[in-house]
Amino acid sequence: MKNQENTDFEVRSLDAICINESHLTHKWYHNLKYLVVGVLFGIVFVKSEVVSWFRIQEMFRLQSFHMYGIIGSAIVVGMASIWLIKKFNIKTIYGESIEFHDKTFNKGQIYGGLLFGLGWAVTGACPGPLFAQIGTGATVIVVTLLSAIAGTWVYGLLRDKLPH
Length: 164
Description:
With about 160 residues, this protein is mainly α. The chain has helices spanning about 10-15, 30-45, 55-60, 65-85, 105-125, 130-135, 140-160. The longest helix has 22 residues, at about 65-85. The model has no long low-confidence stretch (mean pLDDT about 85). It holds the Pfam family DUF6691. This is DUF6691 family protein. Keywords: Membrane, Transmembrane, Transmembrane helix.
């Protein structure tokens, strides 16, 4: 078999961490706003029942539209937001431009999506609401959180050997 050179470097360079990283420096307390937004986001997750294991099971069993409605609404809001940012060249609150990079579809996304969905169905949790679930007293979710962290670490370790 012919030795193939890795030609997807450009694609991989775009999915690296901190592509749009700000070069501004702030005091440590500047990040408290993210804590406040995170707590509010967690409250919304709990009140909308996004963190409910029963709601997640209903979704995967096709018994309820609740989760599909929430996910669909998030997709519509995201699409509209990106369209507005591109159309009006909206900048960050600090005046920095926002860049979007095209990504090509590949088979690794199918494998990753299936693995993600399987984990979501089995555990009743996806990465977003894990902390909100723990905050509601479902401490068994700590196992899921540690598993998500371990899975991320294993992916980083094996990334070059996986299909992308």
